[in-house]
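Ticket #4471: structure output looks truncated?

Reporter: J.K.
Steps to reproduce: submitted the chain below (342 residues) through the standard prediction queue, then opened the result file.
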Amino acid sequence: MRILITGGAGFIGSHLAERHLESGDEVYILDDLSTGSIDNIHHIKGHPKFTYHLDSVSNSYLSAELVDRCDLIYHLAAAVGVRLIVESPVRTIETNIRSTEIVLGLAAKKRKRVLIASTSEVYGKREKVPFREDDDLVMGPTNKGRWSYACSKAIDEFLAIAYWKEKHVPTVIARLFNTVGPRQTGRYGMVIPNLVRQALVGEELTVFGDGAQTRCFTHVSDAVGALMGIASHPEAVGQVYNIGSTREISILELAERIKHLTGSSSRIVLVPYDQAYEEGFEDMMRRVPDLFKINALIGYEPKIGLDDILESVIEDQRARLADHPYRAPMGGTKQSVVQRAV
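Returned output as attached by the reporter:
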């Protein structure tokens, strides 16, 4: 097949491109490098079936040409990371909604198949776990910037389903839960690469809030396999699927495990949310996916455990630090905001 990946130079997009090339597909990516990196695709730039364009989805002429040329579109281009969302809410809303409108509008002309990458953030402040795809979404107030991302991605989902129902565009929605692995950086607040980098360079490991909030982490290779499985499955059209892991760990426990695996002597410190992000910041205390639906469709079960996930990130971060002995903190917090050591 011929594959288009918007946001293809990003963390997940680059792994997806790599996997499709291994499968013999022809891959095109479109990325403006606003959050992606050319380093992520450096190793596949010379592949005979790989083409990349450093431009925005908003370049409608280029986007139209690429959509017309390809059989399947993965729309991954989006504003990502809690820090970026809090600091740039206008960019978050406009990037997420406008780019999705453009991709779906172009796909509708030829009824090209589109996978829309969404997020577990759309579940909002919902407390009952595990989260099922047909559960109600519980958003926070509009004056809390955190929820602008969740709402914009929920609108993306509404658009995708509307295009399927009204214009018969075969769309599939993937709600990704805390995907991690090599090539991910902590630049916009991603917790594991941030903590690993801090541990490796001897900085204090910063944990926001009291560290009791839990997450379920999924290796990018498991997530990519799931994306490919639902993207082309005939029964997935018009549906929403959770992609993630059900193995929970608190962020404080996560920091302790990273400290152990890296052999770091760094202290773990707790940082209040309102100093790490913004006053009145609200977090989700638990985020656990129900995986019954995707398992029933393609037999999906995450295969890579947390320690192996962490080891892959540690290896990746060590290589980054070897290439760049001095790196400014990526999305870290000032030491003056530290609340207390653990």
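Triage note (M.O.): checked the attachment and the full token line is present. Residues 2-180+217-243 form a domain with the Rossmann fold fold (CATH 3.40.50.720).
Status: closed, working as intended.
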